[in-house]
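thought: user wants a sequence for this fold. calling inverse folding tool.
action: design(structure=
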């Protein structure tokens, strides 16, 4: 019988980021009756009334009337592999232009298997060698960190302030890398209500980040999964909408605004690539080539479902997400209010939390380590789950911080969960 040791396998498999996700899933399975503030998943009500047959039919009608296919040819689009670049690029490009002021051609888009594949493709294309580095905010979304580990991409952790990534520290990181014979090739940012911090980058900081990218010659990987939750009247332009020099590779997802099971995302990559013989291509062309060796293509049926949803709402992403955004704002407000009410009579000293204006997450700091051992007590004795924050910190830190996600719960569950959480904090936290 063949026998392997862990040393025989890729080093990424021993990274604690992967183990932390596995541990959370295992704890949730062992304590199914616990109220879980752990998953940052869309609320089930947001896709309870989906009519998949109607959406597929809408897309088939579009394929006939707008794309020029016959009825049989339109149906074959759903049954065959399809182009690696995607089937609904025209609809996504129109929606981005209508809703966000992002004016790109459909050729500048690649439809991916979720945003996660978009991150993987972008990193594989942009990071040429060990001398190319990826800068990430610290703390950072584990998806981009995990993708970088899988590809053996070197990372530079840049501290995050309440206004997003620290731009002075990012500039210093670029210059430090150059002195060492390396370069920061790209910087990953989530400008709106980032996961896990919930921070938001003000307009002025967005413009300064774009200017810094020009000055230090790096690209920006923009992940804006939570911007749609901003309250009406408080919306800020995406970095890609402000991008006049094509510094931004925008990575998007339909998981939050449509439904996660479709696993459909996209990348806007309109940067020009100059070939050795003077030919020109778009970065999107190169990502599509890479995709043929990763997933071949994104499921045509799933793309058609998303395309049908866009058509059902006048081709607008904003219209598809309006009701969902209201649900998440309600949940976030309820979580913050429940924490305020539940702690009116006091908590042990050293416990505090932030108050994000959107997104799915609230961070809470404890005077003791918020580790897996403490989570085990919280789950087994008090019936409430949360996420330890240490795995989100690339440069170390976060040991005393936990993340509360409110997206997946109903108000009554949030109320019960906060009651259990407060009881846990009062009984178990001793500075």
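)
observation: tool returned 431 residues.
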């Amino acid at each position: 019988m063949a026998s392997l040791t862990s040393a025989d396998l890729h080093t990424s498999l021993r990274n604690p980021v992967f183990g932390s996700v596995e541990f959370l899933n295992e704890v949730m399975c062992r304590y199914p009756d616990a109220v879980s503030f752990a998953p940052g998943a869309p609320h089930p009500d947001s896709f309870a009334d989906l009519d998949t047959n109607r959406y597929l039919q809408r897309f088939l009608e579009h394929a006939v009337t707008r794309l020029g296919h016959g009825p049989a040819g339109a149906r074959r689009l759903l049954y065959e592999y399809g182009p690696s670049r995607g089937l609904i690029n025209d609809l996504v490009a129109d929606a981005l232009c209508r809703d966000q002021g992002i004016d790109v051609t459909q050729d500048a888009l690649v439809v991916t298997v979720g945003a996660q594949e978009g991150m993987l493709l972008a990193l594989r294309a942009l990071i040429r060698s060990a001398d190319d580095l990826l800068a990430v905010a610290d703390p950072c979304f584990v998806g981009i960190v995990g993708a970088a580990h899988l590809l053996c991409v070197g990372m530079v952790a840049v501290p995050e302030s309440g206004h997003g990534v620290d731009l002075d520290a990012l500039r210093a990181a670029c210059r430090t890398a150059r002195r060492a014979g390396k370069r920061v090739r790209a910087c990953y940012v989530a400008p709106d209500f980032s996961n896990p911090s919930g921070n938001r980058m003000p307009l002025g900081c967005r413009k300064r980040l774009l200017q810094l990218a020009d000055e230090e010659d790096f690209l920006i990987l923009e992940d804006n999964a939570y911007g749609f939750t901003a309250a009406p009247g408080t919306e800020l332009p995406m970095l890609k909408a402000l991008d006049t020099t094509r510094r931004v590779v925008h990575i998007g997802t339909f998981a939050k605004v449509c439904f996660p099971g479709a696993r459909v995302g996209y990348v806007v990559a309109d940067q020009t690539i100059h070939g050795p013989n003077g030919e020109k291509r778009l970065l999107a062309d190169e990502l599509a080539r890479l995709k043929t060796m990763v997933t071949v293509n994104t499921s045509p049926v799933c793309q058609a479902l998303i395309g049908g949803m866009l058509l059902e709402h006048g081709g607008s992403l904003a219209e598809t997400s309006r009701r969902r955004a209201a649900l998440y704002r309600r949940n976030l407000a309820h979580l913050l209010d429940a924490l305020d009410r539940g702690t009116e009579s006091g908590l042990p000293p050293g416990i505090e939390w932030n108050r994000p204006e959107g997104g799915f997450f609230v961070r809470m700091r404890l005077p003791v380590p918020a580790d897996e051992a403490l989570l085990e007590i919280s789950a087994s004795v008090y019936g409430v789950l949360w996420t330890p924050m240490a795995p989100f910190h690339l440069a170390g830190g976060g040991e005393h911080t936990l993340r509360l996600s409110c997206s997946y719960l109903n108000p009554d569950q949030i109320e019960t969960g906060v009651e259990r959480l407060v009881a846990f904090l009062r009984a178990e936290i001793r500075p």
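thought: summarizing for user.
answer: Here is the designed sequence. The chain has two domains: 6-46+320-428, 52-317.
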